[in-house]
Write a structure and sequence with these properties.
Elements lengths: L27 H12 L2 H4 L1 H9 L3 H25 L6 H8 L2 H36 L21 H16 L1 H26 L25 H8 L7 H4 L8 H30 L11 H8 L3 H14 L1 H20 L17 H17 L2 H29 L12 H18 L2 H25 L1 H4 L6
Helix pairs in contact: 1-8, 1-11, 1-14, 3-9, 4-9, 4-11, 4-16, 4-17, 5-6, 5-16, 6-7, 6-13, 6-14, 6-15, 6-16, 6-18, 7-14, 7-15, 8-11, 8-13, 9-17, 12-13, 14-15, 16-17, 16-18
Length: 471
């Protein structure tokens, strides 16, 4: 079989892999908390300002569009993850359905996504942490709190620090980190509910006029509703981290669907309410450029104590996003290493049942990025990797339904044609709405990835050495 068309057997995914296995310690409450923890973070706490600056009050539509595409992707993920409960997420599904070459591109794109999400969230956390400390009368030097893109900045040490803390937590074990994650998620959601409760009484419908000052936008037009949706997309897609935990889930056939679909429903509703409350409380231009827009809105309302509470909650709870994506990144590496597409030593499992080597390696890379890059650049490039993965999942859903309609599906996405097409088309349109610089660097990244594949991975793949294991 030609290397570009080699496919893994879906049946083989249900069998034990060679070497140590990840421990199955998670149930649906852990997965729901993992999903909400990954989704609710920098997107709503920080990028709502960036999105509002691009779309004005029509950022509400941007949230709805991004939520629609992600909801369809979530349904596709729920069906595929329960059929193929293995670490690897969209990469693993693509390997079984679309072949090795496409799977490599998807996996390489996921590496980009997860790495940059962690870096972006760390930068967003740093903004809130610095603001919180300033409120306490502690002023950190600019040189050590922002990267070189800001005058006087050298390195963002708070961002590097929080990545180190979360990495240490992950190395303790999956169940331990998931339990703490659930506690922090409650704090984070409570903070958003407090914001809504305070902001809604100050609601002024005049702040929604003009509603769409920059128009709806279109592919290659980097302002307006679509451009904002392409950025805000970052705020929704944490649910795919749940699928990377498939191997560590006690009852994947039930719990994965609950975690993926449930977290999307909760977060979409929460986002729309928070966005409406924020715009209703203050004109968009007053908070569009702020690194901590929700806290700024409360301070301008004279609610300094509540603003400090929001900032403190972000400082305490934003690390749940880091935890979810560092967790997911290490499992993507693990899946690709097990398949021989990356060095197999990355697949080593520690005595605590976690992939320690790849977790530490990932942390070093993302900490270096977080120390020097801007939030909007990180988020935009991370989106490009995610859009590629989500589009592939939409294709996998349709192809597998047509190729193997009789295979058992613990969860079936309704109206699979519509779900798949919305996922694919939405991702393509969002990608074309990203900045040209982002599209360029995404293509450069995947060009480098293809060189790695053709020069090393194609001949070292497990299926190249054991073709009898192919589908």
């Amino acid at each position: 079989m030609a290397f570009w068309n080699r496919r893994k057997s879906i049946d083989a995914m249900h069998q034990a892999s060679d070497g140590p296995r990840l421990k199955a310690t998670l149930s649906w409450p852990h997965l729901l908390a993992l999903g909400v923890g990954a989704i609710v973070g920098t997107g709503i706490l920080t990028l709502i300002g960036v999105g509002a600056g691009l779309a004005g009050p029509a950022v509400m539509i941007s949230f709805a569009l991004a939520g629609l595409v992600c909801a369809c992707a979530a349904l596709a993920y729920a069906e595929l993850s329960t059929m193929m409960p293995q670490a690897g997420s969209a990469y693993a599904y693509s390997y079984a359905v679309l072949g090795e070459l496409i799977a490599w591109v998807v996996g390489w794109s996921l590496i980009l996504e997860y790495s940059l999400v962690v870096s972006a969230v760390a930068v967003g956390w740093s903004g809130y942490a610095v603001g919180f400390l300033t409120g306490l009368g502690i002023d950190l030097p600019t040189a050590l709190t922002v990267g070189p893109h800001v005058a006087g900045g050298i390195v963002n040490l708070p961002a590097v620090f929080i990545i180190a803390v979360v990495t240490g937590l992950l190395l303790l074990g999956t169940r331990e980190s998931a339990t703490l994650n659930a506690i922090l998620v409650v704090i984070k959601v409570a903070a958003l509910i407090v914001f809504v409760a305070i902001a809604l009484p100050a609601f002024d419908s005049a702040n929604f006029t003009p509603f769409m000052p920059n128009g709806f936008g279109a592919p290659f037009v980097q302002t307006g509703v679509m451009a904002a949706a392409a950025i805000i997309f970052f705020a929704f897609y944490g649910f795919d981290a749940i699928s990377t935990a498939a191997e560590e889930t006690k009852k994947p056939e039930r719990d994965l669907a609950i975690g993926i679909v449930g977290s999307m429903l909760i977060c979409t509703a929460l986002y729309l309410v928070v966005a409406a409350a924020a715009i209703g409380a203050r004109p968009v231009e007053s908070f569009a450029a702020s690194p901590e827009p929700l806290a700024l809105i409360l301070r301008e309302m004279g609610q300094g104590t509540a603003a400090q509470w929001i900032a403190a909650s972000a400082v305490i709870a934003l690390p749940t996003v880091l935890l979810a994506f560092l967790f997911g990144q290490s499992r993507i590496f693990l899946g690709m290493a097990r398949d021989g597409l990356l060095p197999t030593r990355l697949a080593r499992i520690s005595t605590r049942g976690v992939p320690a080597v790849v977790t530490i390696f990932t942390a070093i890379v993302v900490a270096a990025l977080a120390g020097v890059m801007r939030l909007d650049e990180l988020a935009s490039l991370a989106n490009a990797g995610t859009l590629a993965a989500f589009a592939a999942v939409g294709v996998c859903l349709i192809v597998l339904r047509l190729r193997d309609p009789s295979r058992e599906r613990k969860f079936r996405a309704p109206l699979f044609w519509l779900v798949g097409v919305i996922t694919i088309v939405g991702c393509v349109v969002f990608f074309l709405s990203l900045q040209a610089r982002t599209q360029f660097w995404f293509l450069v990244w995947n060009g480098a990835g293809l060189l790695v594949y053709f020069l090393w991975s194609a001949r070292n793949a497990r299926l190249a050495k054991h073709p009898e294991q192919a589908a």
